[in-house]
Amino acid sequence: MKATIILLLLAQVSWAGPFQQRGLFDFMLEDEASGIGPEVPDDRDFEPPLGPVCPFRCQCHLRVVQCSDLGLPPSLTELHLDGNKISRVDAASLKGLNNLAKLGLSFNSISAVDNGSLANMPHLRELHLDNNKLTRVPGGLAEHKYIQVVYLHNNNISVVGSSDFCPPGHNTKKASYSGVSLFSNPVQYWEIQPSTFRCVYVRSAIQLGNYK
């Protein structure tokens, strides 16, 4: 998982030139097996071809890109990994993301977010985990001081606990939630205790229901 996230990150922020990714780990060079050479363009109309470019400091071989032990950019504030085949998020995968404010993991196949993962992102404000395969609310939200937006719609969450989002007591969270989406999950809204959202000061910020 660590290699997956680091590789995807480098694919977005560390390319030395233009890159067109058609699928996960699709770094394959264009097939030249036809033996038909391209027409030589006029120098006046020449433009560098768009295609896979090996990430800086990585080693690339046809279908393999090796970017191990390069770490993550310390100044990173947003990380978008939407629409890939990530199935799990663990603490090691998110290590070093101290400045991250927004993490996008929508439209993946994530079934679990391991406990302790969010602790590696102390400044996180937005977490997008909608359209995945989660069966429960990710652990650590209640202890997170600054998170304000959590998108969890279109998952398989059937139960929401009274301490999943807010810490015990009142007014112990540094920032209140401004957006929590739980619609299109099998959990029934009338089964959720009202105290579950005690640290959400604007009730309109909570979106529930509409599960089919």
- Return Rg in Å: 21 Å
Give the oligomeric state: single chain
Corresponding CATH architecture of the largest domain: Alpha-Beta Horseshoe
Summed up, the helix count is: 1
Q: Which strand-content bin applies to the residues? A: 5-15%
Order of neighbouring strands in the sheet with most strands = 3-5-7-8-9-10
Uncertain runs are: 2-7, 9-41
Helix content: under 10%
CATH topology call of the largest domain:
Leucine-rich repeat, LRR (right-handed beta-alpha superhelix)
Summarize the structure.
The protein has one helix and ten strands.
Describe, in plain words, how this protein is organized in 3D:
It is a single chain. Helices cover 6% and strands 13% of the residues. The chain is built from 1 helix and 10 strands; from the N terminus they run αββββββββββ. Strand 1 (59-61) and strand 2 (64-66) form a beta hairpin. Mean pLDDT is 74; it is low at 2-7 and 9-41. The chain is globular. The protein has 212 residues and is mainly beta. The strands form 3 sheets. Strands 3-5-7-8-9-10 form a 6-stranded parallel β-sheet, with no helix packed on it. It folds into 2 domains: 1-71, no CATH class; 74-212, Ribonuclease Inhibitor (Leucine-rich repeat, LRR (right-handed beta-alpha superhelix), Alpha-Beta Horseshoe), CATH 3.80.10. The protein has one helix at 2-13, and strands spanning 59-61, 64-66, 78-80, 88-89, 102-104, 112-113, 126-128, 149-151, 179-181, 206-207.
